[in-house]
Amino acid sequence: MTSTTDPALRSFVPVAPDSDFPIQNLPYGVFETSGPTAAPGETPDARVGVAIGDHVLDLTALEAHGAIGTGGRRWFGEGSLNAFLSAGRSVWSEIRSQTSTLLREDTATLRDDSTLRAQVLRPLNAVRMTLPVRIGGYTDFYSSREHATNVGTMFRGAENALMPNWLHLPVAYHGRASSIVVSGTPVRRPRGQTKADEAPAPSFGPTRLLDFELETGFFVGPGSALGEPIPIERAEEHIFGMVLVNDWSARDIQKWEYQPLGPFLAKNFATSISPWVVPLEALEPFRCPGPVQEPEPLEYLRSTRPQSYDIRLEVLLKTKTMSTPHRITLSNFKHLYWTMAQQLAHHTITGCNMHPGDLLASGTISGPTKESRGSMLELTWRGTEPISLPGGEERKFLLDGDELLMRGYAQGDGYRVGFGEVSGVILPS
Ligand code: CA
């Protein structure tokens, strides 16, 4: 059997060399054909699909046709990926292999059946992407050493930059699942309590320090029972795939509210994710070692396998007066200190249970250089070094009308495994 990541694979569906969605990727998403793009008489519904070039392949329809499937179970009938996530790695691999085979240039089934092809292969610009997963639980980590060091240096000085626990455990907080939105959803500038250092009392109003955080996240596949930790060597069996995450942040609200329990209203107004979930299987060729961990973590966080991935990550900003987005950050997932496996092992070590579709985000992924900083807070060093944009504008933090975009991909030999993008426009308070 040919590996689904073989660089030599080609699809009968046209794929540009710089497309995020070649046959080696096959990321999963949920789409709707409602609204003006729906065919006459078509009822709006949510379907599971995989992206291929500029098209989406309808897995819900293919499953109903019997063209894909495992043992008669329906994985794609409910308009979300949750059932499929719960199925586990052997089902994921089988469905991925079947889908890859159907799309290959040397497979006639779809290639030569124009009727079936018209039913199951739709242009991406004719569908609307929705949240791919019903997300029950959301946790956000703080796993970039460079990000934690930058923020710690700004607020506590270089000698106390990292808190004493940071090199021993992946710090996190429990976030808000209900306000996770799909790419393209506008974000309203939140209002809240802030207090300037010199002010005698707090005041209330729109945040003045609206920021983004460049992150990735992973969706939990099979869950775990309450009381039963997931050992690190089995963690990857519970990780389905990854998305891009923008953890919108209101820095002035955060500064006043965060002590002693961490972020709350500064983060819960919106978190944006990319619509396509890239399966770990597609990222396997890009597995690489992460940063050296010194001191060595405790036993339950130790792993002998390299568990990072070489994924280039970009942030772009487009203000109301700009015609094209301008890149302001270039970072890489491989800079992240704590791995996804360590995050999952740590999260469950108490016996905290996981459910299929829980989202665990990385924390801001900053790299070692100035251009690889993953937030405005760091890029402008708390607003003291504004970013200059083409056209002469400057930014310290995000203004109303600004559009923030994140993109990411792993570069293979003649193909790229990409995430598409996560974007959002800031609306006035
Ligand atoms: Ca964050």
Automatic annotation (TrEMBL):
Residues that coordinate or bind Ca(2+): 140, 213, 215, 247
Biochemical pathway: Amino-acid degradation; L-phenylalanine degradation; acetoacetate and fumarate from L-phenylalanine: step 6/6
Fumarylacetoacetase-like C-terminal domain mapped to chain residues: 138-404
Keywords (A to Z) from UniProt: Calcium, Hydrolase, Magnesium, Metal-binding, Phenylalanine catabolism, Tyrosine catabolism
Name used for this protein in its record: fumarylacetoacetase
A GO molecular function held by the record: metal ion binding
EC number: 3.7.1.2
Residues that coordinate or bind Mg(2+): 247, 267, 271
Cofactor: Mg(2+); Ca(2+)
Taxonomy of the source species: Bacteria, Candidatus Eiseniibacteriota
Uppermost EC category: hydrolase
The organism of origin for this protein: Eiseniibacteriota bacterium
Family per similarity comment: Belongs to the FAH family.
Domain annotation Fumarylacetoacetase N-terminal: ranges: 24-132
Keyword Calcium annotated: yes
Gene3D superfamilies listed in its UniProt record: Fumarylacetoacetase, N-terminal domain (2.30.30.230), Fumarylacetoacetase-like, C-terminal domain (3.90.850.10)
Catalytic center residues: 147 (proton acceptor)
Record bears the keyword Ribosomal protein: no
Coiled coil: none
Binding residues annotated for substrate, in chain numbering: 142, 156, 254, 258, 364
Biological process per Gene Ontology, one example term: L-tyrosine catabolic process
